[in-house]
Amino acid sequence: MSLSPIPGAASAVSLDQLTRPVATPPARGTAPMSNQAIVQAAHKFEAMAIAQLLKPMFASAGSAAAPFSGGAVEKSFRPFFINAVAKSIEARGGLGLAPMIEQALLAERDSTKPQPATATSPSSSVPAPGGSVAPSLSPGAGS
Q: Rounded CA gap, 74 and 52, in Å?
């Protein structure tokens, strides 16, 4: 389907040219995210999660026809208000999701990097101060 030229327009543009994406997203794993980008993504995700938790609370607020309710305008601006409240909550510590998301993203990014091969002792044994090898304790072994 193509568009007919508009009278007075310099050139006609087809619908395919208008709907074609301008740039393709980078393929997964081509450029690792920087630490700053990971921190920003984690905080944005936490704010989004908080907003999703707040939606049901604000959906019932003002449902009755109160004398000072905002009506249709209030309903149209409610998503912006919820996002602002969620960002404010996240900026003050939020739910504590951002640090966990950061750790997971950093671990995933670092696991995709090629690791140099090094000759080390097994991780189950730790060198003791005297030079001998002492076995490491498993969780709960000393209790």
A: 18
